[in-house]
Structures are given as structure tokens and as C-alpha cells.
Amino acid sequence: MAKIVWVLTLGMLTAGCNTVEGFGKDVNTLGSKIEKTAKDVKK
Any idea which UniProt keywords this protein has (predicted)? Predict the structure, then answer.
């Protein structure tokens, strides 16, 4: 579980979000990508 949080944090830092608003948008974007990837993997 902690590893997932670390990956998300690293991803957000890499995306370069400097504001809280940007942070929220990046979380949503990453969440969508992760969901899509999970669905693709299950096929």
C-alpha cells in the first residue's frame, strides 16, 4: 500500500504540479490512468 502512495507522489512531482489545484488535477488524471490500466490488464 505504501508503495502505491510513493509511486503516486513521485508521479505528481514528476508532473510538476506546483499548486494545490494542480495537485488535485494530477491526482484525478493519475487515478483515471490507473483505472484504465487496471481494466486493460483484466481483459
Answer: Cell membrane, Lipoprotein, Membrane, Palmitate, Signal
